[in-house]
Amino acid sequence: MRRVILLALVAVVSNGAEAEVAGAKIIPSKVVKDCANCPEMVIIPPGSFEMGSNLGSEDRMPVHRVTISQSFAMGKTEITQGQWKAIMDDDNPSDFKKCGDDCPVEKVSWVETQNFIKKLNAKTGKQYRLPTEAEWEYACRARVRQEYCGSDNPDDVGWYADPLDNPGEKSFAVGSKQANAFGLYDMSGNVREWVEDRWHDNYNGAPADGSAWLGDSTKRVLRGGSWKLGPRHSRTAVRGSAEPVRRDNDTGFRLVRVLP
Questions:
Q1: Which residues pair with residue 91 across a beta bridge?
Q2: What is the pLDDT of residues 121-160, one digit of tens each?
Q3: CB burial class (10 A; 0-12, 13-18, 19+) of residue 212?
Q4: CA–CA dist 107, 91 (Å, integer)
Q5: What is the pLDDT of residues 56-88, one digit of tens each?
Q6: Topology of 2-257 in CATH?
Q7: pLDDT digit string, tens, across residues 18-68
Q8: What are the boundaries of each domain within the chain?
């Protein structure tokens, strides 16, 4: 029986088109880093998954099949205050500066993330960008059917509003909880994360190829929940939005890097 289970897991890892697996332990992919102050990037393999949820808010519906046809690299953690300062000449917008360089940069608008990306691309000669919403959810789920990004228990993987676990009501150092099956940290909780897509009220007409869904809305999508919100906001399919100039102390971002 053990041999059968192991062979099934190997098949899922080797074939991106396979369905998600309940509770599979997938070995994280290769990690790359382009400079001393650059984020560590995890290579995410191609694959298909069911995006959204038929439970809860209508903005998560309908569940639809998305296929990511090419590998991409995604930030192992959210961009930290130390990384932001290194690229942006010590200009740290964060409210929680005392948290330190290993804590996520926060209070950054979607527009400000674009300035950071432009400077990082110039420094490295690589193509960094925000993840699409589909890439974000695919990486969060990591081919595993779980309530949160890496566990069915939010305490394992994320910081959220809790009078016992987070009495100081603040962000925490990245990577201090359990990673998901792709080796990504803080996909659930700590700070909400900007993605590339514009907001839509539901998934009717959403792209099936993992590309960014644009359109006429002025708002951009936020994913992942935060230290300020309850654990239900950190679930894999939960979505939020804000105007691209909005800055909140529970909002940050992580990056994708385009691979050759």
A1: none
A2: 999 999 999 999 999 999 999 999 999 999 999 999 999 9
A3: middle
A4: 12
A5: 999 999 999 999 999 999 999 999 999 999 999
A6: paralog of FGE (formylglycine-generating enzyme) (3.90.1580)
A7: 445 555 455 557 999 999 999 999 999 999 999 999 999 999 999 999 999
A8: 2-257
